[in-house]
């Protein structure tokens, strides 16, 4: 439908014909012109259409739309995600129609031209489209209320709903109370311009929801309240929140007339509908009790918007006020988000000087400067930048000066100046004109950005409509008869609990203590898995992991156990290590519940993770269920199997392995023997985990007891994907949903100089990341404001076949791009403009829709908004793309230390510490032992080991002869003399390292059995000082060097033949030289660490392997950390990502198995030998993990 009317010089043409002559064209074409249309009654406006003036070169190329119910207090229409401006015409004849995204109900429409034909003037023909709007209205005075009882009471239904529109004249007050017979009630209440939903019961009241902001703007707002069972949805305008509440919603509405009048609503309600009943219409028929009127009356209040730093209002001082030299009175109301800004300034009337009334630090200040007098300063109020309306009064009369904020309640300050405070010829509000060298308006403070209203000078209200018509005063960059304040924090764009703060033109997110960073707290600061920390070189310790990156799951504190065999994530629960359950007469069952760190379950929520928990099983012969555990996703399900068995089997691991103590039962603990029996095992079925609760039945049986222990949840493995593509090959996925925020991260490896990593297109919008040159990555996008780019340039080429990490983020505040955690760039979003990224094509990975500029190389660990794309699975079914891309060691091999070898793995790499004297994830942890003087470790070398030593050197000697060796170790001792290492051969040759009685290190080589040993002595003394010293002895043929002590010499004999053993500590052998024999008999007392003879580590063999045949230990032997430096373990707060090479993602990408385990042991002891089949325990207790 269309509405046609005529106002002033406006011509509204019929929708069927735009060929009429003429049109509206103001005499002056500037930014102060508008065309206003009175639709005669409130109408639902759905669209507008414009033309230029007929037969002319006059048209407007862009414009704003504003709406009003009263012809005052205008509201500017904003298309969602835009500045609010509409594109206009490009000629005088074409018709341009715009359908409003959200229809507006209003009586008055105002079109404000922004730009027009530079070769002509503003010219306009306009058509407004809309439909009739019917409403029933209630008006509340702030002291009135309406009580409506539904009689007879409506039938109980599973769902209920309220709907209403309201217009508030005060920022606080109860809109609606709904009470039910069950004692529960709901209250909709305005509190400082926000809508609160309060849920109350007989016990207490609690705040359920808070939504909206600045709802006291005297415009209509829509509220919908829907109750479905225990779920409640609250919608205010376009914002919706939900909550769970008790069932039994209200059966009466209204504000209790006996309640505090300060909480009564002041304003209008419209179309109050409960379950399809229009309560306002029923109230008009007399079925109500209260003091209300059935029309919406509101005072006319003209507001000013100071929207830029150039905004100001100048008012003349009236003649009678200027004559009243003894006094001054100025009042106003303002609302702003800014902490600072000038409200008012004026020159003093007599003797020069000036006064400034301004905001600073969110307080009101007054400064008065007069030549020859001390400056006068007053301050009042607190936190007045909260967006609420605040009143200000400045009064100077009879020698007393005062300022007050919100009356006396908000704060006031007083002074008694020695000179009169009166205004000169002009009052300036908000700022000063831009003219250079002005003397009547000097402003040393920031300009005011916000709204003002109810300006009063000399106790007379200023006619701001006269100001708008240029009859009174002067102004610039003001929006008159509207308040354009916007709450940029409602809804908040700060994610993950970030706290939003704002100014007039922007907002800021405080991300402290959230675990996230960035302009909107979107980017995780923690890695997503322990494996990722390992790829950074971190060793075992506590770390925060963020399993879904920028997703909703919060970071979780876990213990990362980095071992030589793999990386384990340990998630502990709240239960004790071991719990004993004695016999409890009268109590049939014992229950236990296990809680994990917040969101701990989410770390294992995905179906590709293999889960496990270790514990026991108890069964009875007849199969009756006495014990069980609860596990699985959601609330979990009862599980009747135990560690080592299959789900639903009602068995324990001993039954599967066939070694239960009583073959008639499927669990050891069912044997009912008068001794402790144990069932334990791993639960590895992911669909049954985590274990959350455990129930042990038969707890009342006298004389029996049990015990259980539930170990932590363990995760092993990682996930990633690695496709290889060609220039015309790509993978495709569903459209990337990233309207307001998007983060994209991945790793790439390539030898090509350019290529597109990913692209997603819309009608006009797009997002793309590409390698534009060998040293530059580009992140480009368009959200409707035109194409934008963020570029990062690397110092070295990126096509080096090494892994590089890219992270791009785009939100309503900025776009950023980071490369390898070292180089970054960002681009701030426009203050006003489109913010929604509208995409509709498939997401292309490794190429584009046009199949040009494709990427050749490897991609892995691709995540979009915290969700990992399974590239490898898609690659298997895509021609031209291969799954799999090895090469981790080329990038991360340097993390393997101390001669450890990097080994490629399916999802990353590992360090083989076999050739090293060290152990650990990176061969970084020394293996140390504390020896006593009577202890020794003897390692027997096999001929095969000597062969391997020869192959690892350049020696060309026989397999049993060494012509080169390396011996390295660390030691600390207070003993001298002392034998450190003794290596001997079948032919009587030996190599000995010892400390002599002068605390010097001696290296004795006896390779020629016909001669005395050749001795190298260090010049460094005091080596038995209890400090740790490191020594490395290297020989190649006849050249010997001792690293660390700067010793070198040449031997007379080259071959070390038939090497048979290595001894650490005490040695007794008659064939030794007398001097050496005496030292060897004393042994060694102290610390030996990282002992390595070529590739043989005797300490690792003795301490890390059970009963090795090649090792003989004599005397006490204690593993110690005496030789280890402080481990580089992680802390709870470390771990900003550098190169996220491995991930524990929300979806598997590499096909690598991820194993979760949790250890559980169940032990039972029966003191009665009498068998009672009906009292046997069934070890299928619900264990919730």
From TrEMBL:
Residues 137-296, 302-483, 720-885, 938-1122 form the Laminin G domain. One of its GO terms (cellular component) is membrane. Disulfide bonds join 858-885. GO terms for molecular function: calcium ion binding. Keywords: Disulfide bond, EGF-like domain, Membrane, Repeat, Signal, Transmembrane, Transmembrane helix. Its main location: membrane. It is a single-pass type I membrane protein. The keyword Transmembrane helix applies. PROSITE patterns: EGF_3, FA58C_1, FA58C_2, FA58C_3, FIBRINOGEN_C_2, LAM_G_DOMAIN. Residues 485-522, 886-924 form the EGF-like domain. Residues 1-131 form the F5/8 type C domain. The keyword Disulfide bond applies. It holds the Pfam family F5_F8_type_C. PANTHER family: CONTACTIN-ASSOCIATED PROTEIN-LIKE 4 (PTHR15036:SF40), PIKACHURIN-LIKE PROTEIN (PTHR15036). Belongs to the neurexin family. This is Contactin associated protein like 3. It comes from Salarias fasciatus.
């Amino acid at each position: 439908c269309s509405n046609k009317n005529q106002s002033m010089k406006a011509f509204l043409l019929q929708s069927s014909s735009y060929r009429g002559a003429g049109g509206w064209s103001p005499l002056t074409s500037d930014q102060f012109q508008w065309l206003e249309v009175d639709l005669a009654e409130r109408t639902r406006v759905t669209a507008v259409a414009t033309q230029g003036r007929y037969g002319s070169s006059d048209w407007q190329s862009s414009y704003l739309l504003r709406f009003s119910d009263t012809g005052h207090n205008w509201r500017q229409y904003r298309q969602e995600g835009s500045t609010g401006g509409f594109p206009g015409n490009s000629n005088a004849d074409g018709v341009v129609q715009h359908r409003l995204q959200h229809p507006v109900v209003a009586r008055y429409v105002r079109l404000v031209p922004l730009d027009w034909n530079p070769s002509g003037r503003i010219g306009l023909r306009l058509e407004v489209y809309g439909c009739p709007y019917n409403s029933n209205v209630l008006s509340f005075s702030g002291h009135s209320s309406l009580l409506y009882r539904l009689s007879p009471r409506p039938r109980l239904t599973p769902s209920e709903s309220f709907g209403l529109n309201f217009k508030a004249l005060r920022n606080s007050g109860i809109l609606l109370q709904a009470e039910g017979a069950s004692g529960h009630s709901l209250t909709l209440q305005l509190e400082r311009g926000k809508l609160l939903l309060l849920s109350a019961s007989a016990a207490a009241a609690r705040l359920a929801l808070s939504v909206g902001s600045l709802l006291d703007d005297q415009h209509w707002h829509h509220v919908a309240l829907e109750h479905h069972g225990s779920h409640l949805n609250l919608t205010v305008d376009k914002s919706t929140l939900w909550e769970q509440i008790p069932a039994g919603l209200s059966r009466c509405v209204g504000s209790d007339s006996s309640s505090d009048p300060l909480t009564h609503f002041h304003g209008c309600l419209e179309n109050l509908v409960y379950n399809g009943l229009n309560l306002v219409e029923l109230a008009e028929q007399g079925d109500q009790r209260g003091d209300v009127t059935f029309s919406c009356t509101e005072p006319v209040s003209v507001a000013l918007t100071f929207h830029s730093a150039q905004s100001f209002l100048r008012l003349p001082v009236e003649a009678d006020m200027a004559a009243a030299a003894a006094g001054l009175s100025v009042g106003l109301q303002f609302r702003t988000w800014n902490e600072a800004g000038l409200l008012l300034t004026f020159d003093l009337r007599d003797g020069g000087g000036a006064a400034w009334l301004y905001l600073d630090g969110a307080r009101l200040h007054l400064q008065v400067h007069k030549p020859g007098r001390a400056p006068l300063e007053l301050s009042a109020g607190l936190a007045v930048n909260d967006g609420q309306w605040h009143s200000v009064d400045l009064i100077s009369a009879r020698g007393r000066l005062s300022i007050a904020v919100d009356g006396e309640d908000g704060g006031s300050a007083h002074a008694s100046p020695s000179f009169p405070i009166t205004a000169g010829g002009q009052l300036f509000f908000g700022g000063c004109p831009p003219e250079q060298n002005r003397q009547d308006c000097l402003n040393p403070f920031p300009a005011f950005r916000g709204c003002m209203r109810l300006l009063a000078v000399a106790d007379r209200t200023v006619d701001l409509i006269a100001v708008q018509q240029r009859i009174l005063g002067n102004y610039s960059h003001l929006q008159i008869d509207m308040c354009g304040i916007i709450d940029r924090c409602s809804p908040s764009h700060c994610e993950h609990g970030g706290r939003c703060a704002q100014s007039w033109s922007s907002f800021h997110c405080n991300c402290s203590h959230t675990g996230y960073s960035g302009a909107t707290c979107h980017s995780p600061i923690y890695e997503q898995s322990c494996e990722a920390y390992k790829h950074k070189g971190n060793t075992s310790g506590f770390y925060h992991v963020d399993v879904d990156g920028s997703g909703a799951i919060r970071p979780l504190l876990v213990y990362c156990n980095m071992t030589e065999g793999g990386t384990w994530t340990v998630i502990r629960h709240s239960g004790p290590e071991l719990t004993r359950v004695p016999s409890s007469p009268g109590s049939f069952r014992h229950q236990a519940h296990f809680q994990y760190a917040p969101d701990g379950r989410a770390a294992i929520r995905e179906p590709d993770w293999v889960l496990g928990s270790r514990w026991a099983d108890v069964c009875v012969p007849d199969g009756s269920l006495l014990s069980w555990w609860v596990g699985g996703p959601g609330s979990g399900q009862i599980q009747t199997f135990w560690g080592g068995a299959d789900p639903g089997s009602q068995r324990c691991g001993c039954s599967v392995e066939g070694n239960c103590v009583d073959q008639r039962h499927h669990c050891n603990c069912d044997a009912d023997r008068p001794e402790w029996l144990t069932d334990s095992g791993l639960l590895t079925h992911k669909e049954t985990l985590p274990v959350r609760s455990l129930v042990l039945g038969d707890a009342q049986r006298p004389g029996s007891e049990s015990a259980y222990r539930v170990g932590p949840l363990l995760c092993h493995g990682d996930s990633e994907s690695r496709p290889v593509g060609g220039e015309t090959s790509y993978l495709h996925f569903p459209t990337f949903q990233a309207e307001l925020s998007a983060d994209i991260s991945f790793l790439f490896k390539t030898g090509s100089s350019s290529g597109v990593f990913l692209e997603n297109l819309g009608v006009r919008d797009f997002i793309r990341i590409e390698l534009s040159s060998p040293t530059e990555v580009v992140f480009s996008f368009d959200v409707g404001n035109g194409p934008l780019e963020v570029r990062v340039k690397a110092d070295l080429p990126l096509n080096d076949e090494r892994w590089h990490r890219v992270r791009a983020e785009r939100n309503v505040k900025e776009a950023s791009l980071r490369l390898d955690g070292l180089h970054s760039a960002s681009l701030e979003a426009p203050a006003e403009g489109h913010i929604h990224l509208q995409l509709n094509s498939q997401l292309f990975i490794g190429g584009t829709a046009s199949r040009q500029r494709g990427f050749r190389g490897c991609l892995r660990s691709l995540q979009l908004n915290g969700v990992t794309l399974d590239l490898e699975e898609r690659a298997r079914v895509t021609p031209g793309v291969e799954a799999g891309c090895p090469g981790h060691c080329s990038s991360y091999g340097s993390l393997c230390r101390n001669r450890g070898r990097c080994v490629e793995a399916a999802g990353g790499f590992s360090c083989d510490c076999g050739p090293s004297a060290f152990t650990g994830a990176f061969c970084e942890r020394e293996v140390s032992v504390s020896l006593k003087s009577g202890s020794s470790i003897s390692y027997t070398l096999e001929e095969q080991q000597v062969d391997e030593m020869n192959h690892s050197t350049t020696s060309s000697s026989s397999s049993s002869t060494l012509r080169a060796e390396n011996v390295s170790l660390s030691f600390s001792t207070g003993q001298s003399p002392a034998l450190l290492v003794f290596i001997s051969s079948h032919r009587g040759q030996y190599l000995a390292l010892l400390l002599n009685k002068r605390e010097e290190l001696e290296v004795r080589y006896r390779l020629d059995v016909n001669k005395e040993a050749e001795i190298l002595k260090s010049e460094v003394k005091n080596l038995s000082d209890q400090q740790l010293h490191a020594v490395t002895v290297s020989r190649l043929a006849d050249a010997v060097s001792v690293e660390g002590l700067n010793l070198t010499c040449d031997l007379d004999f080259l071959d070390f033949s038939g090497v048979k053993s290595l001894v650490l500590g005490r040695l007794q052998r008659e064939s030794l030289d007398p001097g050496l024999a005496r030292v060897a008999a004393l042994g060694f007392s102290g610390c030996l660490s990282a002992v390595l003879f070529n590739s043989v580590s005797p300490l690792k063999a003795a301490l890390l392997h059970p009963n090795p045949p090649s090792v003989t230990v004599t005397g006490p032997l204690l593993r110690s950390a005496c030789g280890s430096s402080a481990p580089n373990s992680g802390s709870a707060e470390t771990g900003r990502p550098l190169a996220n090479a491995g991930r524990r993602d929300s979806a598997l990408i590499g096909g690598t198995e991820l194993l979760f385990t949790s250890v559980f042991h169940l032990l039972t002891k029966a003191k009665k030998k009498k068998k009672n089949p009906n009292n046997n325990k069934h070890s299928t207790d619900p264990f919730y993990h």
